[in-house]
TrEMBL record:
Keyword Cell membrane: no
Domain of life: Eukaryota
InterPro entries the record matches: ASNSD1-SEP, Prefoldin
Cellular component per GO, a single term: RPAP3/R2TP/prefoldin-like complex
Coiled coil: 24-96
Name of the protein in its database record: ASNSD1 upstream open reading frame protein
Entry keyword annotation includes Nucleotide-binding: no
Alphabetical keyword list: Coiled coil
Phylogenetic placement of the source organism: Eukaryota, Metazoa, Chordata, Craniata, Vertebrata
Pfam assignment, any one: ASNSD1-SEP
Amino acid sequence: MPSRGSRPEDRAGLFSADHSTLRKEDLSSKIKEQKVVVDELSNLKKNRKVYRQQQNSNIFFLADRTEMLSESKNILDELKKEYQEIENSEKTKIKK
């Protein structure tokens, strides 16, 4: 006798696709944000001061501009890499 409704494995596939779509949107937003940070740090004059916010607080500490720029670029690269991995995994799922 045929069952009605969706099978559990079908729902798992939908959840996975939905999750990756949400993750892609989140990563896309973070990438845009990080691009702005990198651009702002790149365009600062050499004598400008840069402050780093202490995690989970409202305390700021003086930071080195070049270090902050380097860290921001690394974060941007990692976000782009993760985004690309998600896109590649989606493409391989479509091919299967």
